[in-house]
Amino acid sequence: MADRALARAAAAVAPHALELRDVRFRWRGRPSFALSVDALRVAPGERVLLVGPSGSGKSTLLSLLCGVIAPDSGAIEVLGSDLARLPGAARDRFRGEHFGILFQMFNLLPFASVMDNVVLPLHFAPGRRRRAAERGSVAAEAMRLLEALGIEPSLVRSGTAARLSVGQQQRVAAARALIGAPEIIIADEPTSALDRDSQQAFLDLLFAEVTRAAATLVMVSHDGTLAGRFDRVVRLEDIARVERGQGERAT
Amino acid sequence: MIPRLAIASLANRWLTALLTVLAIAFSVMLLLGVEKVRTGARASFADTISGTDLILGARSGGVNLLLYSVFRIGNATNNVRWSTVQEIAARPEVAWLVPISLGDSHVGFRIVGTTIGYFEHYRYRRDQGLAFAGGAPFADLFEAVVGADVAAALGYQVGDRIVIAHGLGATSFAMHSDKPFTIAGVLAKTGTPVDRSVHVSLEAITAIHVDWQGGARIPGLVLTPEEVRALDLTPKDVTAAFIGLHSRLTAFRVQRAINEYAAEPLTAVLPGVALLELWGIVGTAEQALAIVSALTVLTALLGMATMILATLNERRREMAILRSVGARPATIVGLLTAEAAALTTAGVAAGVAFLYLTLLVARPIIDARFGLYLPLGLPTPREGLAILGILAGGIAAGVVPALRAYRLSVADGMMVRT
To answer: Which chain B residues are closer than 8 Å to A71 by Cβ?
Structure first.
């Protein structure tokens, strides 16, 4: 609770939901790949589209933003906390509590039920669990989200997530990212596995729920045509520098 | 919820998990089975003779004497003169002496020539005496007492008449068919070689040999049972003798006296000491068996580690999802270690269950076939220790894939690079 209140207070004071300053990162033990980001700021509630071709460091940047990896130097301030200074376990806890994350595909545990997949983050985030249960039960909130995202109730409790279509899987994954109203939603090309029509429908639903939760959205895509929906488009090559070692490719 | 997901994940890979559990189960069953047979065999051997302080025989190794006199394994190289036996029986320390004469068989079962004292003094399984399932000890020259297995295998009852063969083969050509014996008694089951013996008096052994010489019938000499009864049937020699002493403290003194007996080369052994000597001999084989079965367990555990490692790659997505929702790398390590522990526990439980089921079914067969009585008791402390060791080994084997998963999950972060 104190953790949460502190973050809220810090977020209220901090003008940014996310801020990167002079971040340097280098992958170790592989063909050298280094990423530097001098400055990136995202305001609370802002929706930002990060556009860049493959290999431009998108995945690395997202891992840094979510605190899965720590930068070699620089600051990554999220809701007023500097992730770069937090120890690993605290970063993991922070991520569970304040981030909702959507991958490109394979978002779900195929052997678990839809309901189990949706409420999974709440196990690691007591604050989100409390918020999800505020208007009734956790299960009711999960049902509300799933329904809002267009998943039929009959699909929720019976069977595993494996038999869902790709489009349905992405919606369930969106429900998981949104449950318990985390402050920041990170989406890594969430629509690239969907066809054009499904893409639009999916984004409509996602944006509606993000708005409802007043969350900050950072989406990564190589597809600039989505730009119209966002407050701002950031081209990765404008903010990030990538260095690759020559002749160090793994054989 | 996380344990439930871990179980669901495992259930998702149920076939590999099942095979792994089976491999562990069979190895555990083998390990504990070898241990059960080992202790069962030891107990069975140790229980075969009890209450006998010394065994007397012709000069030979102690183990050899024990084997042929008590377990009816192998043959004596020499006999002991009857006068010598009587002299030793007369020593003041000796409370009782039961001579035995071996060398003949009845349809593959050994014939033991002895005295009535045998039924009184022979003790097995912590001082248990021989009991009669029917009838009484032999009272007449041509009467026999059969062991429980002999009666069961050949369908003998008190009053049946049998023919006793010369030599030890199951189908001896030289049948002593002219002198049939009547079954006077049937012994109760003992779980010792007594069950597979036919007992007659020492005089009977002499009687069936009077008209034989060098393994063949003496031409022209055919005696009727009545003529035989009239002869002096005092045995000339016996194979061995069981001796009971008034005081066990004198055992070594009597043993030395026998071993240094001047008129004839003799050996006397304390059954317990000879058994220890025997364990020393079979100990190497036992150890080899134990090592082989332990290696089997090791193989099964390595197989489990391999299985977990192999599935790790396809589970990187699962790990990445868990990491993305806030699971620490330690949680991932815990999950995999718990999986190894669960598989090992299931394997051990199944192995123990298999073992007891097999024992339940096979026990009567093993008892009948090999005279080996396997106790169905709870695992001994030694077996318990082995089980704990296997569980610890299983968890240790799970640490290898868990550490690799840790490394992968730290390196991959949430974005799996393939």
So the answer is: none
Smallest CA-to-CA distance from A111 within B13, B215, B286, B188 is with B13
* Candidates A29, A108, A125; nearest CB to B326: A125
Tokens describing residue A6: 């502190």
Tell me whether 0.90 is exceeded by the ipTM: no
Instruction: Measure the CA–CA gap between A36 and A40, rounded to whole angstroms.
Output: 11
Domains and CATH numbers, chain A: 2-244 (3.40.50.300)
Task: Determine how many CB atoms are found less than 10 A away from the CB of residue B120.
Answer: 13
- Of the candidates B347, B353, B354, the residue with the CA atom closest to the CA atom of residue B395: B347
Using an 8 Å CB-CB cutoff, list chain B residues near A116.
Answer: 1, 4-5, 8
Helix, strand, coil abundance in chain B, percent, nearest 5? 55, 20, 25
Q: Do A124 and B9 touch (CB under 8 A)?
A: no
- pLDDT tens-digit map of A44-88: 999 999 988 877 788 888 888 888 888 999 999 999 889 888 888
Residue B73 to residue B53: CA distance in whole angstroms = 20
Asked if A121 lies within 8 A of B325 by C-beta distance, the reply is yes
Q: What is the DSSP string of B110-130?
A: EEEEE-THHHHH-EETTTEEP
Determine what percent of chain A falls in helix, strand and coil, rounding each to the nearest 5.
Answer: 45, 20, 35
Q: What's residue B172's pLDDT?
A: 41
pTM of the prediction? 0.73
Q: Is A4 exposed, middle or buried (0-12, 13-18, 19+ CB in 10 A)?
A: middle
With vertex at residue B27, the alpha carbon angle to CA B23 and CA B33, rounded to the nearest 5 degrees, is 145
| Phi-psi category of residue B383: left, alpha or beta, with phi > 0 → left and psi -120 to 50 → alpha | alpha
**How far, rounded to the nearest angstrom, does the alpha carbon of residue B88 sit from its chain's CA centroid?**
33
Over residues A6-26, the pLDDT tens digits come to 555 555 556 788 999 999 998
